[in-house]
Amino acid sequence: MPKVVLLDSIFLDFGIFTIASVWFSYILYYKHQNPLWIYITFVLGMTGIEFIALQIGTLTYDDEWNKFYTFLMYLGGFITIHLLTLKLAKLKIYP
Q1: What's 7's DSSP letter?
Q2: What per-residue confidence (pLDDT) applies to 8?
Q3: Angle at alpha carbon of residue 41, lines to 90 and 91, rounded to 5°
Q4: For residue 10, what are the contacts with CB-CB under 8 A and spacing of at least 6?
Q5: What is the pTM of this model?
Q6: Which of 6, 23, 57, 70 has the most beta carbons within 10 angstroms of its beta carbon?
Q7: Cα dihedral across residues 50, 54, 60, 61: positive or negative
Q8: How far apart are CA 80 and CA 58, in angstroms?
């Protein structure tokens, strides 16, 4: 039987990735905030949360993965969400 530890999957259990992406698109689309500051806030915020989890031992990186790759993955993810939001707004699917 695998050992299930709550803290290993707490971000997924609470849906922090989903919540962050919804807040990101909400602030960009409805609040019309400066995209540069929203990117900085969300990418550094999510990277910071992951760094804290790494420091307290609830998260470990395998092989050559590091904080810079994590930063790039969050940046790419939020750029994708932004582009999808713009496309859906253009198609009048996103209210």
Answers
A1: G
A2: 60
A3: 5
A4: 58
A5: 0.78
A6: 70
A7: positive
A8: 27
